[in-house]
Amino acid sequence: MNAVDPELVEMMSAVFAAHRERYEPGEGITELWDQLGELGLVRLTGSEEYGGSGAGWAEAVELLRAAAWHGVRIPLAEHDLLACWLLEAAGLEADDSRRTACLLDDDGVAGGVPWAAGADRVALLWRDGTGYCVADVDTASLSVTPGRNRAGEPRDDVSVDVTALTGTPLPDNVIEEFTRRAALVRAVQVCAVLDRTLALSVAHTSERTQFGRPLAKFQAVQTLVADIAAESALARAATDGALAEALRSDWSSEHLDFLVAVARSCVGHATSVVVRNAHQVHGAIGTTREHRLHEFTMPALSWRSEYGSVAHWDDKLMEYATVAGSDGLWALITATGD
């Protein structure tokens, strides 16, 4: 990905840091949303023709990382990278309403929709005959059952009578890109909280003493932290690799689905190691409400299972490996083809 202006990255981080000093997780969303809107960050990747800021994924990734790093939970990805992008792809105008997006099943139901109850509108996707349609719908006209993920974020069930909807047709490749985007968004966010978990673990083991010396001096603790660092780096490398290929090919690479599966599998398994080891090195204090560790480990555990569970992505990799066979496995991994 292209490098992002360091001043922009610093500004993003400062906004979320200041917000986190004033509010507890999940609070002050409206105030922060208004501030981000004034800064042009709510529709960061939207084209200027459709009221966006005209930035790219590189800037969006830094925005998502900054929010996750500071423990701020807000539907920026759902609004900008999913819902508003879908509307723009369909040639539909998007006003300043806060949005999320979901893919309905054949019964017009979607479970665990991020931030649906608090959204003004929902970009609904559903299969209509042989193709897919999208509609920008007022949330008040939907049946929404509030829910939460284990990190305490809104994950709501949505249902609607699709026969009463008027939708705009979409090509199949848009649906494919939607699923890839959603999967990589969560990978980016998980990587950010894993990096923050590593930073907290390094700080804790450096500052905390036991038997007259810092925890970081004990070999067993060093091994735990080293594994956190290694798994976090692996997850980030796999995610960055998939993103780079997505942007290079405008989300159309024949290898992209495989790379997304690799990223999500690596992220999912890395989360298990990072969360376990981080809580081990923090000890009892890491389980308290007052300590911030849970603000990053709980989202990591929640996000890794959204838009496809770890088992789902592992199964995808197994399918790719089985089809490639022993003769084609190296070409699959290196994406060289024949």
TrEMBL record:
Keyword Phosphoprotein part of the UniProt annotation: no
Lineage: Bacteria, Bacillati, Actinomycetota, Actinomycetes, Mycobacteriales
Protein name: Acyl-CoA dehydrogenase
Cofactors (names): FAD
Listed EC numbers: 1.3.8.7
Presence of keyword Ribosomal protein: no
Organism of derivation: Mycolicibacterium lutetiense
InterPro entries: AcylCo_DH-like_C (IPR036250), AcylCo_DH/oxidase_C (IPR009075), AcylCoA_DH/ox_N (IPR013786), AcylCoA_DH/ox_N_sf (IPR037069), AcylCoA_DH/oxidase_NM_dom_sf (IPR009100)
Keywords carried by this UniProt record: FAD, Flavoprotein, Oxidoreductase
Superkingdom of origin organism: Bacteria
Stated family: Belongs to the acyl-CoA dehydrogenase family.
Record domain Acyl-CoA dehydrogenase/oxidase C-terminal: where: 178-301
Residue span, Acyl-CoA dehydrogenase/oxidase N-terminal domain: 17-94
Pfam families linked to this entry: Acyl-CoA_dh_1 (PF00441), Acyl-CoA_dh_N (PF02771)
Molecular function in Gene Ontology: medium-chain fatty acyl-CoA dehydrogenase activity
